[in-house]
């Protein structure tokens, strides 16, 4: 099982920026914890971070046929990027959107996620632990999808 972890703008500044909102952990520390959890569960992770919307769209599109699912923190693009939402819909992969802070307790403009409708689920407000919850959730979702695909293939083979 392979999962892409896509991080949006300013996530590379974790540990430095607004620690009262995002905490002291760096992006590398979050990714290291995810690697440890993934290796225990036979999951391969691919990490990507960009401050540029088009690069994030390109990365999402590259996931088609290459990964089984996506964990994404679109960061500020959550509230403004129809392009990222469209890319997620186009690849149609199981996707969990993650937010370190509880976007619903923040400024009004941050309380609307344009990208959420293109995601399988959203995890917000659990700090960096939200990435671990996303990994558990997405692993389960992908396993269920693969089991359903296998059952369908067996049914079709039995009919043939």
From TrEMBL:
Keywords: Amino-acid biosynthesis, Aromatic amino acid biosynthesis, Lyase. InterPro entries: DHquinase_II, DHquinase_II_CS, DHquinase_II_sf. The keyword Lyase applies. The record marks 17 as: Transition state stabilizer. It catalyses: 3-dehydroquinate = 3-dehydroshikimate + H2O. It comes from the Bacteria. Substrate binds at residues 73, 79, 86, 100-101, 110. Its EC number is 4.2.1.10. GO terms for biological process: amino acid biosynthetic process; aromatic amino acid family biosynthetic process; chorismate biosynthetic process; quinate catabolic process. GO terms for molecular function: 3-dehydroquinate dehydratase activity. The active site is at residues 22, 99. Pathway: Metabolic intermediate biosynthesis; chorismate biosynthesis; chorismate from D-erythrose 4-phosphate and phosphoenolpyruvate: step 3/7. The keyword Amino-acid biosynthesis applies. Homododecamer. Belongs to the type-II 3-dehydroquinase family. NCBIfam families: aroQ, PRK05395.1-2, PRK05395.1-3, PRK05395.1-4. Catalyzes a trans-dehydration via an enolate intermediate. This is 3-dehydroquinate dehydratase. The gene is aroQ.
């Amino acid at each position: 099982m392979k999962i892409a972890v896509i991080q949006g703008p300013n996530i590379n500044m974790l540990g430095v920026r607004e620690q009262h909102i995002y905490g002291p952990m760096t992006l590398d520390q979050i990714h290291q914890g995810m690697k440890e959890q993934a290796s225990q569960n036979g999951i391969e992770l691919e990490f990507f971070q960009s401050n540029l919307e088009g690069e994030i769209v390109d990365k999402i599109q590259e996931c088609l046929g290459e990964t089984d699912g996506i964990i994404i923190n679109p960061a500020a693009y959550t509230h403004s990027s129809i392009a990222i939402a469209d890319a997620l819909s186009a690849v149609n992969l199981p996707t969990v959107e993650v937010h370190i802070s509880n976007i619903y307790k923040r400024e009004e403009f941050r309380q609307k996620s344009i990208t959420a409708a293109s995601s399988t689920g959203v995890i917000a407000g659990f700090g960096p632990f939200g990435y671990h919850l996303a990994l558990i959730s997405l692993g389960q979702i992908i396993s269920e999808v693969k089991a359903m695909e296998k059952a369908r293939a067996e049914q079709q083979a039995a009919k043939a």
